[in-house]
Amino acid sequence: MIPDNEWLNTWNQKRALLTCPNNLNDYFEETAVAGKKIDRLELGSVSIPTGEILVRDPLVYIQKDAEPYLIKVPAGEFPVTAAVVVPDGEDCARYAAVKVQFTADDAIRFEEALIGTEDLVDFTEGQFFGFNVDAGLGCVLDKETLKHFCTFQDKFHSEHPGKNLYDDYFAALFAANYVENPIYQREAGDWINWKIPGTDYHIPFFQSGFGDGAYPVYYGFDIEGKVCSLIIQFIDIELAYGEDE
């Protein structure tokens, strides 16, 4: 969907307010943030055949008419990395952020990714739009891989009436991935890199930090103003774990 000129004008006026308040590079470069030990977990690659990218809860918000973000990204296969808050007690590992790296360049600023339909008129500092999570998971996908996901989803429900897509399909994949890659996962599994059956496309699924909620997604822009990364922020580490909590 192409936004109208009024929306684009408001967006350009308010882009400074869409900047991430955190330096998300720290999540992927430092060993600690706000006193919490941080580590990285490689989640394989994501397939981006068209450059029109989306972030969704893969069990609740996968719909054929879902709109991709307004700014396109490079097409291809790209590495996906989770920044993990290392457990230091009874708590489990928490995925604070997940990054897709498109180029070798570093981001110097992060700005929220928008679809082009958001109500920006009353948008103010400290707010974000984000995407909704109701199943404790997020995923990164492309407009083309979304089509294949929806085809698979429809086929599964047609062939398995009354069955649940997670309980009767994905749960076994998550559990198997835990066995193969137990670090920073619970026994039921916290991530998979799913190859859509009948295709060569990969979609990574991953736990959403503190669970259900709404989470912002940011483009990383390099020094030339080009998109070099996309980061989903599940946990504002400074806010959640800082001394002034």
List segments where confidence is low: pLDDT < 50 over at least 5 consecutive residues: none
Assembly type:
single chain
Beta-sheet strand percentage? 25-35%
Counting DSSP E segments of at least 2 residues, the number of strands comes to 13
- Helical content band: 10-25%
Give a quick rundown of the structure.
With 245 residues, the chain is an alpha+beta fold. It is 21% helix and 31% strand.
Structure overview:
- It holds the Pfam family DUF4241.
- This is DUF4241 domain-containing protein.
- By secondary structure, the chain is an alpha+beta fold.
- It has one domain.
- It has five helices and 13 strands.
- The chain has helices at about 5-15, 25-30, 145-160, 165-180, 235-240; strands at about 30-35, 35-50, 55, 75-85, 95-100, 110, 130-135, 135-140, 190-195, 200-205, 215, 215-220, 225-235.
- A seven-stranded antiparallel β-sheet has the order 1-2-4-5-13-12-6. Strands 3-8-10-9 form a four-stranded antiparallel β-sheet. It has a two-stranded antiparallel ribbon with strand order 7-11.
- The model has no long low-confidence stretch (mean pLDDT about 95).
SSE arrangement:
Elements: H1 5-14, H2 25-29, E1 32-33, E2 36-48, E3 53-56, E4 76-85, E5 94-101, E6 109-112, E7 131-133, E8 137-142, H3 143-159, H4 166-180, E9 191-195, E10 202-207, E11 213-215, E12 217-221, E13 227-233, H5 237-241
